[in-house]
């Protein structure tokens, strides 16, 4: 068996250049580590992270709120049009072993909260980083290293980090 | 037509005596206003609010995470065993016109965040009351009065507040 | 406690005059029995059943696929805009103690199938009445009587059939 | 961009030797075509199809009803513990471009019905093959060839059938 490690990257639907560079580097580093990127499949942090992961040959899962696979950004390789609306936020937290949050508004906060409720490690940049229970980080390298370590600590066996 | 006004009451699954008295008074006041109480159907704030509403003859809806209607507290008149797990939190925010939060942990925070994301008024006691965008209150009377006013302002017609 | 009995009425989104009369009579008889009508909240069988129930003073729950309570038909008293899309079909089967199906297409078939999967009694008119496991009926009186009997047999205590 | 083609394989949770061989061959042929297998992630048809796909180096997605990734069968590479219960059946139909059904009971019927409701091609072996709107097939080769052709006809561009 080679069960893949799923890492959720969540955050703002529109971001500035610095935020995009950060999210892209996170995506690239996750793909280089063999992890599968999970996100909401749309723009902003989601698109930048997918671009980074796809550029490094990684698989990228987009859990879309609507019913149309074509609404996914161009770097989503596995488009999942859930049709669940905002309940797809809960799905992102459910299926990811660990979450990395980059900025974001209330939608991101809901995903962080569900992740914490489920006992998943949540690594956070910028906004929401003061929330009790999250792991605050400053760089993409630090975020990915910490996320992978926390994921493996919480479940050491069977994960395929090729 | 007499469309009922649905008010969500969210909060901790276990509470102290003061919290229970507060939630019970909120439930009673909502029922006296003709509103239908929506909650997660289980214990703590949910059970206390239902007890208050049921005691005043109100209808109480419990959106349960599991598949068993019998898991609802005794004062839920309309038990809805969604089977959706944590995604039922999103449902509570979706179906309520306004939310009242009493303390609570990460599950409550996820409901507040989804409510704000959906543009619904959110009235908050205690924890999470410092979150940008919520309406902070101190008493049950104030909470119910404000919630009903915000609900009616956001949609004045057709609501049945008998 | 007075837990209400929830009966789901499912079926075609557009129907002829005879179908509407049938669904309306089912709604009326359910309300007269003290049951709460659960449906998808839109047109056709749903609207006719709600009209019958509301005319008899009954409570009517509409589990809507979208996020807008105003999309419910005029006789839905408790509009629940789930935002879950087609997954709201599963919700209808989950929360109802028994289902009554009046004609309908593939959406109705999915609800019947989930109901049977969950072990719920399913009472069927017309199309899909030949499916193994359903109870075939011919009149509204027969449908409601059978549905209430099957609901009570499967769970005799606590139900409020005033 | 290389958007992957997602093909859902649905069916009985327990099967005989002939059924397992059939499902395994379907999985193998899908993987050889470059498609990603989507299923419910558990036993029977799901496990056999995943075994076939994994043996041919394919990616396999398991949309699990519960919250535990470890409940997936050993050949699921991407385990998605939705926590949505039976609503995950709707997800399988939502995210797949085409469905292949192998035997199965009411759960499978619900997935076929949702697929047809969504206008997706549904290729069926054995039980439920007489349902209006499905494509009846007799062999694994025929099923996969037809499913891929129908998927491409319904959306010709961008699909990565390497």
From TrEMBL, chains A, B, C, D:
The UniProt entry, under PANTHER family, shows: CYTOKININ RIBOSIDE 5'-MONOPHOSPHATE PHOSPHORIBOHYDROLASE (PTHR43393), LYSINE DECARBOXYLASE-LIKE PROTEIN (PTHR43393:SF3)
- List the InterPro entries: CHP00725 (IPR005268), LDcluster4 (IPR041164), LOG_family_nucleotidases (IPR052341)
Official protein name in the record: TIGR00725 family protein
- GO CC: one term? cytosol
């Amino acid at each position: 068996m080679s069960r893949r490690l799923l890492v959720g990257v969540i955050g703002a639907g529109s971001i500035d250049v610095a935020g995009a560079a950060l999210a892209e580097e996170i995506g690239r580093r996750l793909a280089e580590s063999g992890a599968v990127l999970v996100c909401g499949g749309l723009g902003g942090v989601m698109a930048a992270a997918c671009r980074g992961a796809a550029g490094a040959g990684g698989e990228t899962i987009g859990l879309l709120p609507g019913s149309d696979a074509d609404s996914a950004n161009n770097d989503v390789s596995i488009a999942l049009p859930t049709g669940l609306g905002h309940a797809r936020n809960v799905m992102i937290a459910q299926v990811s072993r660990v979450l990395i949050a980059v900025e974001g508004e209330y939608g991101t906060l809901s995903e962080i909260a569900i992740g914490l409720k489920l006992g998943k490690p949540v690594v956070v940049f910028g906004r929401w980083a003061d929330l009790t229970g999250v792991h605050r980080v400053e760089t993409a390298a630090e975020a990915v290293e910490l996320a992978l370590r926390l994921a493996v600590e919480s479940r050491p066996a069977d994960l395929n980090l090729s």
